[in-house]
């Protein structure tokens, strides 16, 4: 992880620890955080602290409107997504910077030491080992994405099981209520016709509330499946990137045709890495925009649930 990201991470950890120790969020300052972590620029700390306070305010507001289990689950999913995006971006930037530095070094060696062709070949073998490690790291990322997809499937299955259990419980209660109603009606039908009508009305309302709850649960299951589809798309992207790197590795084995060709190839690699770095930066911005969109949709959906859910279901 880069130094800037380490500073941002430690800023968040320190802010959370101070709040847990009794500090209020508005009492946290840049100087207070810097005195704790002793690293990074104050501008970086200020930006991250401001973002943390905003997120803290929104999460507190969200937690006050929802049951604790639902709020914790949504916030946990969002935190894992953000942390994963930052971790992938920082790791890839570090790899690109290291590879760019190696390409610049190879270009200088090709200009000033044309007679060192054998040494250059040895360096390429070392680079081959580094690319192999990068491929292994990408495979690990792919496995992590598959694991997250499996977790999304498990959550969807759990929601479906919960929906079925609640539906069965509602059916049981409804049957019990109807049985009691029939017994009471047999003995008191003449004198309790008005009460019987009121009871039937309450039963209809309970049925409507249960149908509303079931609709909300189906929406949550649909959202979980959508998250799984997005995780699968991310896994496919990582697999495609892995295949591209394998192709680049095969091409690197034949770049020693001549000393002049080695110089031109090194220059082309430098330009390619610069473009690739820009692509990853755009990809990170895209991921951040997607995360913001997911978070906004989640807040909007949860607000709709809080507003439209029947009073009994909210309790």
Question: Please, could you describe this protein's structure?
Answer:
This protein is mainly alpha-helical. It has two domains: 1-61; 66-314, Helix Hairpins. Helix content is 89%, strand content 0%. It has eight helices and no strands. The radius of gyration is 30 Å and the shape is elongated. 10% of the residues are buried. The model has no long low-confidence stretch (mean pLDDT 81).
What descriptors fit this protein?
8 helices, 0% strand, 315 residues, mainly alpha, Helix Hairpins
Summed up, the helix count is: 8
CATH class of the largest domain reads Mainly Alpha
Span from first to last CA? Answer: 44 Å
- Structural class call reads mainly alpha
**CATH T-level topology of the largest domain:** Helix Hairpins
Radius of gyration: 30 Å
The appropriate CATH architecture of the largest domain is Orthogonal Bundle
| SSE ordering | HHHHHHHH
Mean pLDDT: 81
What best-fitting shape do the alpha-carbon axes yield? elongated
The unreliable regions are: none
Number of domains: 2
How many beta strands in the DSSP annotation? Answer: 0
Largest sheet: none
State the helicity in percent bands.
over 70%
**Oligomer type:** single chain
- Bin the strand percentage: under 5%
